[in-house]
Amino acid sequence: MIPCQSCGKQNPIGTRYCRACGTKIEVNQQQVFQAVSEDRADAASTRWFERGRSLLIIGLFFLTCALVLRLSVVPPMPVADVPPVDVGGFLPKQLPQDKLVDNSAAKPAAKPAVKAP
Amino acid sequence: MNTDQRNTLGVSMLVAGLVLTLVAASISWSAVQTWLAVSETGEASDQLRRGRVADARRLATKAASRAPEAAAPALLALDPTDNDAIDRLVPLALRADRHADRQAVLATVGLARMALGKSADVELPGTADLRLIGAMAAARAGRDPGKLKAAENEEPPHLSVLRAAHIMLMRSAWEAGRVSETRMHAGALLLLRPKAPEAALLYAVVGVSSPVLGDAEAMQLLEGIREGKDDAIRAIAALLPQRRAAIAAKWPKAVEGMEIPASVAPEPKPSGAKP
Amino acid sequence: MIWALRTLLWFSVLAVALVATARWLPAYLHRVQVPPDFEDIGGLVPMTGVWLTAAPYLVGDVVAYRIGDGPEDVSFGFVAALPGNQVRITGGDLLVDGNEVSNWHPFGGYRGIHDVGPLTIPANHLYVISKQHSHDSLSQGAIGPDVILGKVRE
Prior knowledge:
The structure holds 3 protein chains of 3 kinds.
Chain A: E1 2-3, E2 10-11, H1 29-73, E3 114-115
Antiparallel strand pairs in A: 1-2
Chain B: H1 3-49, H2 53-66, H3 71-76, H4 83-95, H5 99-115, H6 128-140, H7 159-176, H8 179-192, H9 199-208, H10 215-223, H11 229-239, H12 244-250, E1 259-260
Helix pairs in contact in B: 1-2, 4-5, 5-6, 6-7, 7-8, 8-9, 9-10
Chain C: H1 2-29, E1 32-33, E2 49-53, E3 62-66, E4 74-81, E5 86-90, E6 93-96, E7 99-100, E8 115-120, E9 127-129, H2 137-140, E10 148-153
Antiparallel strand pairs in C: 1-2, 2-10, 3-4, 3-10, 4-9, 5-6, 5-8, 6-7
């Protein structure tokens, strides 16, 4: 950009008359070189700015998706349960004595017992 | 904003964007791993329900490696005979987020230690699990386990703890000759899993010890026992002298060495009648 | 900056859309079909899909639960007992904490045994009764979280 000598407004390189006040713009080569290099630096920083902004937007997008995936879509881990543990078989290890400890069934009548062969 | 400021801002946004992308990738990876772990844990539960313990443990071990902080796969992968594995569960209980997970881990540790003959050494205040584990330890040591009465405001027991308690207490009552207690525990196990492999034995215990059922129906129930039939019938005959005559008619070897009270008919109600 | 506000707005819309999909999709996938030969239970209309919701469960709720591996192997029943309740069969009746469960006679599965239990229902399990006892808790026992699909929503 080249500044107007009269009003100071910046005009693009190659402009002959100031767009603000109409004064003819007189430039020398050094001014042109300086303007060109400033414009290039400006364009470069704009590109960095735009790349940075794009990547930031993409990063935010992925982060949003990842958080939604993690917090809403993935099912919760089921509640833990105690696994089965072997505590031995159902049958007694030794047989009970030949008597009823509690009387929930009727006691045998007082008749002579018959011993099994 | 001048060129330098815009440059700086652009580069900062670039770096921030990269960082956010990496964080998002990390979160997504962890989410996928958790999802796979949840899926494998579900499959492991299914396998366990079908009785395929080895397959269940294999799947649960894979799930636990994906989600090491999760309690559910860690418990399914546990080998209850491995002391070290049991001890490694204790820190998991401390790190568990959910109260239910913490209780399950501690109950597993207590039950597994008790099954190995050691002291449970866990704190489970206000739960039936601890009471049941205590009763099992007492029964194992030959002491009276006491009545298993449900307490108010107590958290209900886990199924495996409840089942283990009924099995051990039934055995203990059977060895002591306590008929009604044996019958009660057998009945509870039957209600819990009516189609389990041991159901025929439990039906037989509950039915044959019933004062209502006749000898003919009682013998049919004994006929239904498949596994370990001879030992089971002998143990039932030892518990119930009033059925020995009927048992001796079909299975004479089952009552060898036992006294057979002559002509005892089961009374319809428990009366404690004097002989 | 305008672009920042615009970006934020689009992200908010995207996040809401994704969360809504994640919340709605599982409910849609959990919609089960009541089989055509299923007797009317609690007002369920056969052939209509019913929506399932999760716990907490109350006595009397109608729940759906898996009885097999296939997607149609689903059964329904009333919750008769919750974790901690005591279930017993006495004189041919099903009692829960001493109260009789009416209209559901349990005889078929217990071969004339009239006094069974009591059983304390364990944690996370339900005792479920339906008209066809071949699939309910009288033949399967207390059903656990691995097979319970959910409560039927009216």
